[in-house]
Write a structure and sequence with these properties.
The structure is a homotetramer of 135-residue chains. Chain A is built from five helices and no strands. With 135 residues, the first copy, chain A, is an all-alpha fold. At the A-B interface, helix 1, helix 2, helix 3 and helix 5 of A face helix 1, helix 2, helix 3 and helix 5 of B.
């Protein structure tokens, strides 16, 4: 049982959205928060830390931004579509940059391959949710 | 793929811990962050909000505390056992209080039944991890 | 001594920005995180909680969003202007909505008057920083 | 105007505490969240990053833990003393370890001197608040 299952239990339906798309987006954002945070820490423990500076920075940003985006999307009481759109747009920027930084390191560092994939999944579902959110 | 899978990929093993126990604890804390946050919001949307004041407060605390506990547990570079022990102990307090507040509302509000169960699972695995952490 | 003072000590200058404008924006975002979080809790303790539902929701969102925005702005290593712009734009949405919800309650609840003012300050300096950030 | 000023405006007084001590502790925790977060990022930008690995890790932990501690302390509706005590104890561990790691780097890196001082202030007021919190 997770936050996305709670979408179905909520006493209010604030937005006209496909519940499965909303749940998928919440899960993808939570996964990005986790995976980017763990990737930043794993990179911090690597011998060639110097080359991973940019990866650590963008992972930390992405972990923070994706986590807050998930929190907002999981709230359905008095939701504000314009705020959700703007925060989701920021999340798409965060996963784009962290995903690209990790893609460059993926051949050498397995955590970066995992993180790149989590960012790409979040980008994909996030773009679909952004298109579905009311203007 | 999640933060707990990244435990296995990390270049360092900071603590002598059963990786599956650590992963289980990280997952339970993340689940509590999500479920308690979503439960607080669902309660905020209920008609009998007055009776749910305590539930909302303790859910917000538990969501914040469990989320930070997961972040710390997922980091393995230069981990400090005494800090992990103290933060995990705080998490056990948070899930105990949120779990009890939700148990009282579970018959009337389905989100509280879900949240009570997530808190109990986190309490169970958290107690086992606390016993396993080095002093 | 605060994060904004640390702006001057940082070994890198990632962005061509007026340091005093950047510091002012970081401080305003931190203040919003604090004040909106405290306002949500104070409203949750009010007798007329029913009327404050929207205020609580938007305060929680604004506290989370402003806090993450401050974190990103305070980081200067490998900063990505397009991510900062997008997160700052989300923050402006958050303070606009929370500020308006609190303005409606300000005559009755002193915490809402304080919160409205913190949101307006953050909106003002945030708009100036957004105009100054590189495209 | 800050969260600590809102302590005085809150409709409820959950705990029998000196308001000025509570406010001072909230402010010190917020300052630690900011300063430790900015110190982690400044260290990440240093040429001798290798020697600062431990500092970055403990700063990130301390920023997260102190921020959550401030959030909990700033909430006065339905406060749970046993949770506040446990979270405050975790915060004292976090500022102790981050403060010691930064003290070792303070002669070479000005951000670490600032961060060490913020951690020491938080440790001092946190210990006084812990002694004053009801058992």
């Amino acid at each position: 049982m997770s936050a996305s299952d709670l979408v179905a239990l909520h006493p209010r339906k604030a937005l006209e959205l496909d519940p499965s798309l909303l749940s998928e987006a919440i899960e993808a954002c939570w996964a990005c928060e986790q995976v980017c945070g763990a990737c930043a820490d794993a990179c911090l423990g690597e011998a060639d830390l110097e080359a991973l500076r940019r990866c650590v920075r963008l992972d930390l940003d992405c972990s923070d931004v994706a986590g807050v985006t998930a929190r907002l999307l999981a709230r359905q009481t008095e939701a504000e579509p314009s705020l959700l759109r703007a925060q989701l747009a920021a999340c798409l920027e965060a996963v784009t940059h962290a995903g690209e930084a990790c893609a460059e390191q993926a051949a050498e560092h397995p955590q970066c391959a995992v993180c790149r994939d989590a960012c790409r999944r979040c980008l994909d579902v996030g773009q679909r949710l952004l298109a579905a959110l009311p203007a």
